[in-house]
Amino acid sequence: MLAVIVWIIRDHAVRLRVEGHAPITVGEVREIFPQAESIHDDAGPRGGASVRDAGGTQIGYVVRTSPHTDGIIGYRGWTDTLIAFDSALRVAGVRIRSSQDTRDHVADVREDRHFLKTWNGKPWEDVVRMTPEKAGIEGVSGASMTSMAVAEAIQRRLQLADAALQIVPPPLRVRGHDLALMAVIAAALALAFTKKRQWLRRGFQVFVIGYVGFLTGDLLAQSLIAGWAANGVPWRTAPGLVLLLAAALTVPWATRKPLYCQQLCPHGAAQELLGRIAPRRWRVALPQEFARGLRWLPALLLALVIAITILVLPIDLASVEPFDAYILRSAGWATIALAVAGLLASLFVPMAYCHYGCPTGALLEFLRGRGATDRFGRREVAAALLVALAAALSWKYQALHEWMIAGN
Length: 408
What we know:
With 408 residues, the protein is an alpha+beta fold. It has 19 helices and five strands.
């Protein structure tokens, strides 16, 4: 389930980065490549798309200037231009896709075939160095500002791609912070798989709250998991945190033990300690039907996270969970209020937030093996529905985006 959702989010993020809200179509590419049958987004630094024929052979490569160059304004607005390259990365054609500029000015540029052929036959690297002045471009008569903006945007778009290509990935950096977190993970594994004294477990919980929670802030959260799913995993710069997530995902699946939730989550540790301190007379027994309904809340929050991530809604995922409250220097009041409410609830209902409100815990629970008792049940239904939701939102993203814009 998780692998499928991560793949959908990653594929969707690449598609948005390459296509934006106006994807390149096979129809418009066929004006330059008549044999084009399909377009495949390039997740690499160039951020374009390969054009393939019916046999799957790459016959070209296309990039669009928008949204990368929307800050380059002609007479009154930006212009989105398609630049098509042949298989040797020589310009095969340039087309105006859409524009926020004056309609008449854009029409003049489109109709001036000499202007749009300025770049034809030139290799990518020459276009990168070719300023409008070097190319001898004086602009289209009657639409000089619009045409010069188009020329500048073409050069700027390829310069941005070249700059991205020259970025060297950072080397693997294992700092003292990472080594310390790895040691904490090892200690948690030892506690999970060996007999331990209660005082040792309580001491480790206090340490986890203080070190993992307040000192380092290395908590797993939906904001982190969704961000890594969309943009990649920073294993070179944060190996300790990556190992923490890897252990949280694989150990429950392989051993049926919820390592992170039981041993490494500061918020879970705080709830458990408070539950043990609170007098037993404070405990509240939730009605069975009410408790059963509440158990769907974490899955519903996961659905909300998927919707926010795929639809790129202006909602901070950190506000969905209380974990940022442990990072005192940057915690928002809403996150702090959610954390305090969960801790107070644990005084009356043991581990209340973990059982009835934690989407990250629910995600890890989906992965936990059950051994011989594994069977299709509520957990599998919820997982299937979440996969279907992610697929549907990605598939219908353009229509939903247009609907949301129209609603505003």
